[in-house]
Structure formats: C-alpha cells, structure tokens
Amino acid sequence: MKKVLFGVLAIMIAFTVTAQSIIDAEDGRNPNDFYQRGIVVGKSAIPYPFLRESDVVWKTTIWRRIDMNESFNQYLYFPTEREEEGNTQNRINIVNLIIKAAANGDFEVYEDDDMKVPQEWTKAYLNLSGAPYTQQINVIGEDGQPVEDEDGEYVMKDTTIIPSFLNTTAKKLNLKEFWYIDKQDTRQKVRIVGMNFMFERASKSGENLTVESFWVPMDFLSVRKVLVNANAYEENNEVAERSYDDIFIQRYFESYITRESNKFNRKITDYLTGQDAVYESQMIEERIFDIESDMWEY
Description:
alpha+beta, five-stranded antiparallel sheet, two-stranded antiparallel ribbon, globular
C-alpha cells in the first residue's frame, strides 16, 4: 500500500513540475527560439591589452579584402533584409549592422583609412546613396499618355531624383590591420584597426559605379560593443554562433591582401594585374608568416 501511495505521489509531483515548466515557457516565450538566449546580448567587449612602444620590435600595415560572394564568407552577407523588411531570428548582416549603429550615433565614422577626420553621418550616407540630381521626364496627360506639343514633340519637365542605398550591392569588405611582433612573448600578432565596404551605385548616366564607404575604427570600444552584441550565423550549429567581434578577432573569414605598406604608397593593382597580382598577394601573406619562424635559430 505504501508503495502504491509513493508511486501516486511521485506521478503527481512530476505532473506539477511539468505543468510549471509549461507555464514558465509560456510566460517567458521567445518568439525566435524555444528558450531565452542571453549569451551574446548584453555582453561588453573586452579591451585590448596595453601595449608598450618598446615591446613592438617589428610592424607592417596590411590592407586586405573579404569577398562576401565566396561561399565561406556568405554568413557576413545574409540576411540582406533589414528588420523593418521582415527579417526574422534577430539576425542582421554586417553592413546593415554598421549602417544602423552609425545612423544611431553609436560611434563615429571617418573619411579615409587614416581615421583622423570624422565624417558627419549626413555626408556619409549621401556617399552611400548618391546626391540627388535633376532629370528630364515626359509630361503624362490625363489619359496616361505622354503629352505632345504643336510640333509633335514630347513635352518634358525637370524632376529631382533621390537615389536610395541598396545594401544588397555591398559585397566586399576592406580591412586595415597592423601585424606586429610583441617582444614580451616573442609572438606575431595582428590587430584590425579599420573597416569599410565596397558597393555599387548608379551614376547620373545610369552606369554602375563601384564606391567605397566611410571607414569604421574597429579597435574602438564603441564599435566593438556593437559587434559583440550581434550574432553571425553558424551553419553547422546555431548554438555555436559567434559574435561579429569574435569573427574578426578569431579571423573566421577568407580574404586576400590588396596592399602592404611600401615606399611608393601604392596598391598591388597599381603595378601588377591579373594572375601576377594574385601571386604578389600570396607572396606577401607567406612572407608575413615566415617572419615569426625566422626569428628562431637552432
């Protein structure tokens, strides 16, 4: 009899716990998941460690490009929809994240990769969308047809065209980074200090122009605070999603070098083209990695 009563009591307790779990799940329901996620949201970026000038025994400046058309890098490009356009799962791509944060005034943006001259957001966005321009169009009559004058010529009028920025055309990121050797641990390290993106914009003549955006100071805590609180999609396991800050620190992307600091202050494409430019980029990459191993003598 005692065993029967104990079994009934155990069933009642299990039912109560299950019912309470259901109630709790409904009360704290997350529309984009089955549990509350707080691993990334609300995080603070960890400041980079202080580095003394005397500890840097070697340094070079590298500019590299991330092509988001490449399969490995596509998680940076998608989803292209903005939140107001029906984006789901609280995901945002890197370009929309940067534009949204800059428009909100979360950090300053700069005119060039020196990042010394701040750029007002109004001017920065004007570069994205293109300046308004005047264009002649046909005058349309009440019948929906173009109006003609006495000579049979179409009547034209001036109208102001206000372009809009298409975030889907932004498919390449440019990074500026410092590679250096720290004397304290004799290791080669890298720090990304700037980023901008390349996009296409229609000109007045209708041709597509490839334009570079404003520059974002990637080592500023104000920028890293934005990056650390946004997830980048992980295809194989959504639980393992990294923040965009993690992505750049861990260098979880594929890229190629477009320029190294040099006495002529020129890009690789200024003196080489085609396959020769590709070989030059690979050679610079290999030389940088060889510097650390070449420090050791046996």
